[in-house]
Amino acid sequence: MTPEFVVEYAKQAILLTIYLSMPMLGLGLIAGLIISVFQAVTQIQEMTLTFVPKIIAVFLGLLFSAPWMLDQMTMFTINVIENIPMYIR
């Protein structure tokens, strides 16, 4: 195994992590922006008001994207395990 090989696999793992987390982060961002606009319009400055909608949005996103996320992680893991003989050369 060369250092370039290890760096490439680390890069793939980091990119997969970012790719999988983007739907939940995006939903949390959108929910946060909507709540912020609502707070600005109504002048309600309750700090805990932002947490519940964000948590619900992220959980709903996770509920709907979990099969896709599991499929992506499984494919990556299978690829790593299947290529173990090539790594030890």
In short:
With 89 residues, the chain is an all-alpha fold.
The succession of helices and strands, N to C, reads HHH
Question: Based on the structure, what is the oligomeric state of the protein chains?
Answer: single chain
What level of helicity do the residues show?
over 70%
Number of helices: 3
The rough form would be described as: elongated
Structural domain tally: 1
How much strand?
Answer: under 5%
Biggest beta-sheet profile: none
First-to-last CA distance: 7 Å
> What class do helices, strands and sheet pairing give?
mainly alpha
Average pLDDT metric: 90
Low-confidence stretches: none
Number of strands: 0
Radius of gyration: 19 Å
Structural summary, described in words:
The structure is a single chain. The protein has one domain (3-87). Helix content is 85%, strand content 0%. It is built from three helices and no strands. Helix 1 runs antiparallel to helix 2. The longest helix has 40 residues, at 3-42.
